[in-house]
TrEMBL record:
The keyword Acyltransferase applies. The keyword ATP-binding does not apply. Signal peptide: none annotated. SUPFAM superfamilies: Acyl-CoA N-acyltransferases (Nat). This is GNAT family N-acetyltransferase.
Amino acid sequence: MITGKGIILRRVTNLDIPQLVDICFYDGEKAESVEQALTMQEKIDRDYEDGTSIHWGIEDLTSGRIVGTCGYYRGFKNASGELGCVLLPSFRGKGYMTKAMQLVMDFGFLDMGLEKVTAVTSTQNQAAIQLLEQLGFSKTEEKEEMIYAEFCRPAFSRKIRRFTSLDQKQVLTLLELNTPKYFHPSEEKDLITFFDRFAEHYFVVEEAGRIIACGGYNLGFEEGKAARLSWDIVHPAYHGKGVGRKLTAFRLDELKKHPEVKKVQVRTTREAHGFYQKTGFRLVSTVKDYWAGSFDLYLLELLLKN
């Protein structure tokens, strides 16, 4: 669910279908009955489970009525998503689609890490063309009475800052998004304890007001000569896009301000240890099932050059 000004985007349920029959489509085919619309919705739900689409109903917060649908369709190849939207006729021209499309675009760029959003409409659909222009789309092609347009990822401001207690909810959400691939479900309790006792040198990466990564360091190991990087978490949409590397480099620079620290350690898992090796850390040892069943400990070290 995504909440905006006057609307929410939420999952379409079977209870919504009778009022949406007039705008139910799948692969260009329009539903002619409630039964056909329900079948189409089943296909849309399967596409969502397969990771090739995201489909929302647009609900008016004042009346609670569903006024249309929107989403991403036809997959996400090359970090690109194709937008689609349709409103019930009685709700057109009232600003619903402008607000819904902006929410969907923000979700695509900030939550999914898309690099480009595309849209296709008919040359006869002046309302859709005006909407795309209003949202900042650029026309890329016109052929066979269809217009193709795109909006590339904006240059959002991004900064690294210290963690505060107000960030805890967003950081726990990042942990959940990376569980169970990188973290065991039992580790949430350990992270909450960390917040309470050991987060003096913990940082977050913030983009457009949202936390997309976090990580810290702790001092005092091996008689003060070693430090450890701690609780590195990156939003899955930003994996492989340099966010983790920049946060690691930032902390290594911070550690150079502690002249007593000569070595930096990382205690991580099999899934993540390769990232640290690429940034210069050396694998020292492993311990089977250390964090939990099938979650082995990988200990890596880096000599710090002050």
